[in-house]
Amino acid sequence: MGRKKPGKPRRPRSSIPRQYTLQELQPPGDAYEEWYKVKPGMEPMVNDTGLGSEAADVMNRLARLGPWYDHTVPKAALLLDTVIDTGQLPVIQGGDADEATMIPVNEVAAARTGMNAAAVRESLHNLHAHGAFLVVPDKEHGVPLIRFVAKRPEHPGEAWSFLGDPGMAVASVCMPTEIWDELPLDVAGAVAFLRSYDAQLEEADPVVYGTHIGVNGTEHARELFAAARASRFVDYKGCEACPAGHLCTRTDENNE
Fold it and tell me: What are the residues whose beta carbons fall under 8 Å from the beta carbon of 193, sequence distance 6 or more?
């Protein structure tokens, strides 16, 4: 056993688990095979005649996206940014592109006082960078699709779980999909975080959540937790057929 050196206090161990970046968690899919290093402080280009319009568009997007992705931007973020431009967010469950639900961006903005298109864009990218959803390129239709994550890995090398996956209706971590339609995006993200901990019979720590991308510290995390719990979704159960304590994504309509 080692001895403590006199006069040199032992450093306390941090109680906050390490938060891995999106790149470190290795999201699946072609959209996460290419990553772009963005120099901090990179400015958008203005009338740069040395680049074609397509290349200049990519560089300008990377300049904007860099800070939101810790200056390492996946190709998926570029695809997400272009689909936000269309004003419609195609959301899928279970990997079926033909059953995509189109969510208008302006409705997302209107759901929260003071929210505008720029704020919606930033919130979506922050949720993406945190791993709340991934981007799935649809090769048949040529449209990037959004697929919400039921549980992201805690450590690199672990599997990602998605809403709508086979067996998710009886899995330990689920979420009602209505949160993304009815709540502000940052509150919906807090609901997802709280439910994932509740399903594992663990208490969510605002200190940990405060370190996540898009959350401005512990006090902001507590505010988001309060707003999430004030909604009906943290304890929401879809039907009586669920096992005791199960957090279910099913609704009464699914069981008729």
Answer: 204, 209, 212, 228
| Furthest CA-CA distance within the chain | 71
The angle, 0 to 180 degrees and rounded to 10, between the axes of the packed helices 75-85 and 53-65 is: 100
Sign of CA dihedral 76, 80, 81, 83: positive
Q: Assign 89 to helix, strand or coil.
A: strand
Query: Which residue is it, tokens 């959350």?
Result: 215
Q: For each of the chain's 256 residues, which pLDDT tens digit applies?
A: 344 444 444 444 444 556 788 999 999 999 999 999 998 877 776 555 566 788 888 999 999 999 989 899 999 999 999 999 998 888 887 666 667 788 887 776 665 556 677 888 888 888 888 888 899 887 776 788 998 887 788 889 988 888 766 654 433 345 566 676 678 878 888 887 887 777 656 678 888 888 776 688 899 999 999 999 998 888 776 555 444 344 444 444 444 4
Phi (first) and psi of residue 238, to 5 degrees: -75, -35
How far apart, in Å, are the Cα atoms of 207 and each of 22, 154, 178, 187, 234? 20, 16, 27, 16, 19
CB atoms within 10 A of CB 120: 22
Alpha carbons 143 and 82: distance in angstroms, whole number: 10
In three-state secondary structure terms, 35 is strand
Q: H-helix or E-strand containing 73?
A: strand 72-74
Cβ neighbors of 41 (< 8 A, separation 6 or more) are none
